[in-house]
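Deliverable D2.4 — example input (structure tokens):
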């Protein structure tokens, strides 16, 4: 009799536990939005006390303009790729963000821009790195994806490809902004101080950690269930030797898969590359069957932070759940869901 009762108890316990696990998994699969869009304009040491009301308003207005452009495309049955491109164009054309027109300067006082795009339906992707004349690098990345046999083109070759494809080409002077140029000069002045190697290394690390990573990005889910993620940047102020960060690296700065989610990253690129951050989030959803929120928190707040990396991500999963996750003081960001509800934020909540 005791054995029978024990068997019944164990069977009931296992049944309840299985049901609870199933319910948990089912909750993750509830359709939250039929379509949605999220953007970022960079993360870093973004503090309200360092922001004038006028500049804060300018950022908020441009973020809203960018996300509404993409949202309107999605609302009117447009593709997620078209929405991502249009939203990123607005930010690339603004001097406020470190992408396109507002790109930062290299040590050689030039502008070298990177961008990437990935479609979740086909896992097709395209990217450019170190372009100097393309007005909208995100469009160059799309051209690589759609009209070449490659994923990543760099430098003069990428500029030449863009010109051959009829993209808008600008004189390098177009990308000059006084604010970005002066930021470079301030860093160069600091470099002139007499520091030994270890002190210089510490200086560079502290300077990066206290920077604003002005990369822009967008992730969109359209009405057909297709996810696209895109990222565009001017890179890191004072970068040397044609340094390339995570933004044009598929799996690090950008990743999309209809089976899981789409991700766009912004931050200290070397760490995002080492951590394969964007893909890691999608992999956790696929292999561990966790929610988007759990995956993004684990990757950014635990794994990336323990490595010493700083920055953040935006993401949308296959069910339209939206995530912002960052370990810095702020991140320029905005989102809209299928109900038209708008969120625009800059600082930590």
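Example output (designed residues):
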């Amino acid at each position: 009799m005791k054995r029978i009762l024990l068997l019944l108890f164990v069977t009931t316990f296992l049944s309840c536990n299985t049901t609870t696990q199933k319910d948990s998994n089912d909750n993750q699969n509830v359709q939250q939005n039929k379509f949605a869009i999220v953007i970022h304009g960079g993360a870093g040491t973004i503090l309200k006390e360092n922001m004038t009301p006028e500049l804060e308003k300018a950022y908020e207005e441009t973020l809203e303009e960018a996300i509404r452009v993409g949202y309107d495309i999605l609302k009117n049955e447009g593709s997620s790729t078209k929405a991502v491109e249009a939203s990123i164009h607005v930010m690339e054309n603004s001097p406020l963000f470190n992408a396109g027109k507002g790109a930062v300067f290299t040590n050689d006082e030039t502008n070298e821009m990177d961008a990437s795009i990935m479609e979740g339906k086909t896992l097709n992707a395209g990217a450019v790195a170190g372009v100097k004349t393309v007005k909208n690098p995100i469009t160059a990345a799309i051209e690589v994806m759609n009209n070449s046999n490659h994923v990543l083109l760099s430098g003069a070759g990428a500029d030449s490809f863009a010109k051959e494809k009829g993209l808008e080409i600008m004189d390098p002077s177009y990308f000059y902004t006084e604010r970005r140029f002066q930021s470079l000069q301030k860093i160069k002045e600091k470099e002139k101080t007499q520091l030994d190697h270890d002190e210089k290394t510490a200086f560079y690390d502290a300077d990066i950690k206290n920077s604003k990573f002005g990369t822009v990005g967008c992730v969109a889910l359209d009405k057909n269930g297709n996810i696209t993620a895109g990222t565009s940047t001017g890179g890191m102020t004072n970068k040397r030797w044609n340094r390339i960060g995570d933004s044009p690296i598929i799996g690090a700065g950008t990743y999309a898969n209809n089976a899981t989610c789409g991700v766009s990253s912004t931050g200290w690129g070397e760490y995002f590359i080492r951590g394969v951050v964007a893909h890691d989030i999608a992999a956790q959803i696929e292999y561990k069957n966790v929610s988007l929120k759990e995956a993004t928190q684990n990757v950014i707040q635990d794994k990336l932070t323990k490595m010493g990396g700083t920055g953040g991500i935006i993401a949308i999963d296959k069910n339209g759940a939206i995530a912002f996750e960052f370990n810095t003081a702020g991140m320029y960001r905005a989102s809209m869901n299928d109900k038209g509800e708008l969120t625009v934020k800059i600082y930590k909540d």
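The chain has one domain: 34-347.
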